TrEMBL record:
Spans traversing the lipid bilayer: 38-56, 62-85, 97-119, 125-150, 162-185, 197-216, 253-276, 288-307, 319-338, 344-362, 383-407, 413-431
InterPro entries, per database record: MFS, MFS_dom, MFS_trans_sf
GO cellular component terms, A-Z: plasma membrane
Domain of life: Bacteria
Gene Ontology molecular function, alphabetical: transmembrane transporter activity
Keywords of this entry: Cell membrane, Membrane, Transmembrane, Transmembrane helix, Transport
Cell compartment(s), UniProt: Cell membrane
Membrane topology, as annotated: Multi-pass membrane protein
Domain Major facilitator superfamily (MFS) profile span(s) in chain numbering: 23-436
Entry-linked PROSITE patterns: MFS
Name listed for the protein in its UniProt record: MFS transporter
């Protein structure tokens, strides 16, 4: 395989129109169901896992904390998933790594739906649950990079933001699917039947992801850019991709993680802590809050795609930084609107926050991909994304709970959200300066 090696943001082998549409739609579907799998675990951890997988004589609060601790495992292990699948994707190809991540997630989630409970197998039940959640975390840590690069590296260079945004819609689609499926199953069955076996149905539906993984493996081609450039260059690279990332691109990885913390922190605050705060502290019906979350998530879909397309014309970093500023400012309106207990204002509060987050998340896939050369791009983009996910989403609800317990006010939580948005703003600003510095050095070398 031969050809000139492009700069990190340059594509040299665009896919035909019909091909890139197929790749983008498949990547979006895979991402949506993968995130569905990840989110249904959180719902089940709140509703059924304390009674199913822990001793019946355990105090309810302790059992709930234990169930949420298994949920946290999925976040903690995500960077490891980024490393493992990033290596596979950079060495053996995007398609193989993505299909492997999808198969792992599908099998792990289906396995959770088949697990016997504590009453049947004792302590083996929570241990098996943790092991399968570990596998979920590995899979989701590798899925995003594969899906994003399949779309972006197959797209024409002037349309990377647009096609990359199809992968980003997987998060809101997965969230809506998870809530709708649990709602339908819960409404269709008696409470006892739901607790005994009905909760397993949403997990068993994950077998669809196994089928999508097989489709990716058999019917999609490797992106032209990787086939032409990445595979040729990889043979000349000394050491594994991770070693080169840590040696040559560590600053970009850390700044990418910093860029993502605002989006992930604010998103999980809106879909988890706001629901818990609204129900437990304000006495708002859970159905009202969940309906607001689902409507806001649905509104994100077109905005994410629009923002990705706009970034192709006006640049990734500018629209990203505007989103960080607006999301940080809106954090101070979020809780006062929630505290009105008005369904309309609650929906407005969450929806506007989600729309501002879309300004960041829409162009993010293309922004992260363009930070790294082709031969280490899967590793670099995945690692930056997953570091930001742990620092942001993994700890945000815990930090918010601690802040409210200490100050009995949501203002410190808003300050915390604003600070995370400032971190992301400054990280993207620094990424822009690093990019300009590299271009200046390249021109000086040529000159």
């Amino acid at each position: 395989m031969t050809g000139k090696v492009p700069a990190p943001g340059e594509s040299i082998v665009p896919a035909p129109g019909a091909s890139i549409v197929k790749v983008a739609v498949t990547a979006a579907a895979a991402a949506a169901i993968e995130w569905y799998d990840f989110f249904i675990y959180g719902t089940a951890a709140a509703l059924v896992f304390p009674a199913q997988f822990f001793p019946i004589d355990l105090p309810p609060l302790v059992a709930q904390i234990a169930a949420f601790s298994t949920f946290a495992v999925g976040f903690i292990v995500r960077p490891l998933g980024g490393v493992v699948f990033g290596h596979l994707g950079d060495v053996f190809g995007r398609k193989r790594a993505l299909s492997g991540a999808l198969l792992l997630m599908g099998l792990a989630t289906t396995g959770i739906g088949l697990l016997p409970g504590y009453a049947q197998v004792g302590v083996a039940a929570p241990l098996a649950l943790v092991a399968l959640r570990f596998a979920q975390g590995l899979a989701v840590g590798g899925q995003w990079g594969g899906a994003a690069l399949m779309a972006i590296e197959s797209a024409p260079s002037g349309r990377r933001g647009f096609y990359g945004s199809f992968v980003q819609i997987g998060v809101p689609v997965g969230l809506v699917l998870a809530n709708v499926v649990f709602l339908l199953v819960g409404k269709s069955l008696a409470p006892q039947a739901f607790q005994v076996w009905g909760w397993r149905l949403p997990f068993l539906l994950s077998v669809v992801l196994v089928l999508i993984g097989g489709y990716v493996r058999r019917h999609l081609e490797e992106p032209g850019e990787f086939e032409t450039v990445g595979a040729a260059v990889a043979g000349a690279v000394q050491g594994p991709p991770l070693a080169r990332i840590l040696r040559d691109h560590l600053g970009d990885v850390l700044l990418a993680g910093g860029a993502f913390v605002a989006n992930n922190t604010c998103f999980y605050m809106a879909i988890t802590y706001v629901v818990a705060y609204g129900t437990a502290t304000l006495g708002i019906a859970k159905e009202t809050l969940l309906a607001a979350v689902m409507l806001a998530s649905a509104l994100m879909l077109p905005v994410l795609i629009i923002c990705g397309g706009v970034s192709d014309k006006f640049g990734r970093r500018g629209i990203f930084m505007i989103g960080a500023v607006l999301a940080g400012l809106w954090a101070f309106a979020l809780f006062p609107l929630i505290e009105t207990a008005s369904p309309v204002l609650i929906t407005l509060a969450i929806a506007v926050e989600m729309l501002f987050l879309s300004l960041m998340y829409g162009p993010q896939a293309a922004l992260f991909a363009e930070l790294f050369p082709v031969e280490v791009r899967y590793s670099g983009a995945s690692l930056g994304y997953q570091i930001g996910s742990v620092v942001g989403g993994g700890f945000a609800p815990i930090i918010a709970t601690a802040l409210f317990a200490r100050f009995q006010s949501t203002v410190p939580i808003s300050v915390y959200l604003g600070a995370m948005c400032a971190v992301s703003f400054l990280s993207v600003l620094a990424l822009g300066r690093r990019a300009r510095g590299r271009r200046a050095r390249a021109r000086a070398t040529v000159g």
